[in-house]
Design brief:
Strand content: 5-15%
Number of helices: 11
Helix content: 40-55%
Structural class: alpha+beta
Number of strands: 10
Mean pLDDT: 96
Order of helices and strands: HHHHHHEEEEEEEEHEEHHHH
Shape: globular
Strand order of the largest sheet: 1-4-5-8
Largest sheet: 4 strands, mixed
Oligomer: single chain
């Protein structure tokens, strides 16, 4: 049975969250009240099995939840996304009979909050190389030294999944592990002052020998692309949930455009609503068709991940293409809604103005436009000849 998003995020809660979003954005402040409300609703236990006190969601369920949350507060949804990525990856592992990340779901059930400490400035290899040093420890654990950017949930996480490169052996290895907030060897920079998505507080994290014990080291992978389940799990859940957030942004912008067309009146036509203007109707139809195109693709991809469908090498093309299309659709639909809505949307404090800024963050999440196009081209045409 699919999970009903309204049963988890009832309209009253959605309106509370929506009402707080402008203030968080204006003050550049973490969404603490939203976070507390989502914890109380069991939202951070979405992927935790029902038997362990969770919602028992699949990825398709989480996509619908994140679309709904993003329509109220995109920055809140984006930040929560990073916790859902790690718990979603653990769900991908569990569905495929691998218990390596069982502790992630167990700790999430106990109230732990996971951050995604992966991105590095200048590292365009993303998951396939790292600028962070992973140094082996005598007990089999590793310490991590490097700088991670865009660490969402900075004020709230209690566990961070991260990775670095171990160069001490005959071949370098990418080491993935989990550190604890209450351990030494890390600190955040107070550097999150951005154009949009401000409430996510995705601050830079400096690792200075932060240690993950042996039982929290989950992979040692070769540098470069590889088909390991961890790579697929991260890529599939990260890209799909990102697409869900930005699809929610597009859906909300469409609602605001429709509302504006009904509300605005034309002096030239004797006070008729703009919803009767053929040009405005054309523009809104374009926005509606854009949203209608991305939603089925998003749902299809999420369902296939849940159902263990084997798309073979095309998976990475479909995932990077989905994320790229969703973020570009969000930008396009918000831009169109601004045009339909008139000059009022240009003023600070309007919801469309905030969505316009929030949508731009989609440019910077992996896969960026260049990477997405390269991935799709390689799958269709083969690699570039040396």
């Amino acid at each position: 049975m699919p999970l009903d998003p309204e049963s988890v995020l009832p309209e009253a809660l959605i309106e509370e969250i929506r009402s707080r979003a402008p203030g968080y954005d204006e003050r550049n402040e973490f969404f603490q009240e939203d976070f507390d409300a989502l914890v109380a609703a069991g939202y951070l236990k979405a992927f935790v099995p029902q038997a362990a006190g969770g919602l028992g969601a699949g990825l398709a369920d989480a996509v619908r939840l994140q679309r709904r949350l993003a329509q109220a507060a995109p920055a809140t949804a984006l930040a929560v996304n990073m916790h859902l990525v790690w718990t979603g990856v653990a769900k991908v592992f569990s569905n495929r009979g691998d218990d390596t990340l069982a502790f992630v779901l167990e700790e999430a059930a106990a109230g732990e909050v996971f951050a995604f400490g992966v991105s590095e400035a200048g590292n365009d290899s993303v998951l396939f190389d790292s600028l962070t040093e992973a140094a082996p420890l005598p007990d089999g654990g590793y310490s991590f030294t490097g700088t991670k950017v865009f660490t969402s949930l900075a004020p709230a996480w209690t566990r961070m999944g991260t990775f670095g490169k171990d160069t001490t052996g005959p071949e370098p290895r990418l080491v993935w592990g989990f550190i604890r907030r209450d351990g030494p060897g890390w600190h955040h920079l107070d550097d999150w002052n951005t154009l949009g998505m401000r409430a996510s507080q995705s601050r830079t994290t400096v690792l200075e020998g932060a240690a993950a014990p042996a039982d929290r080291i989950v992979r040692r992978l070769p540098v470069g692309p590889n088909p390991d389940l961890l790579v697929f799990g991260i890529f599939s859940v990260f890209e799909t949930l990102l697409a869900a957030v930005y699809t929610g942004v597009a859906e909300r912008a469409l609602v605001l455009a429709v509302d504006a067309a009904h509300r605005r009146r034309s002096h030239r036509t004797g006070g008729r609503a703009y919803s009767q203007d053929p040009d405005i109707r054309w523009q809104i139809a374009e926005l509606g068709m854009a949203v209608d195109a991305i939603v089925p693709q998003l749902e299809s991809v999420a369902a296939d991940i849940d159902n263990l469908v084997d798309r073979g090498p095309a998976w990475f093309r479909h995932l990077s293409g989905l994320k790229h299309r969703a973020t570009e659709t969000a930008k396009s639909v918000v831009d169109g809604a601004m045009r339909v809505g008139g000059g009022g949307g240009y003023f600070r404090g309007s919801e469309l103005e905030r969505l316009y800024r929030d949508a731009l963050a989609g440019l910077y999440h992996p896969s960026d436009p260049e990477s997405a196009h390269a991935t799709v081209a390689t799958n269709l045409l083969g690699p570039i000849e040396e």
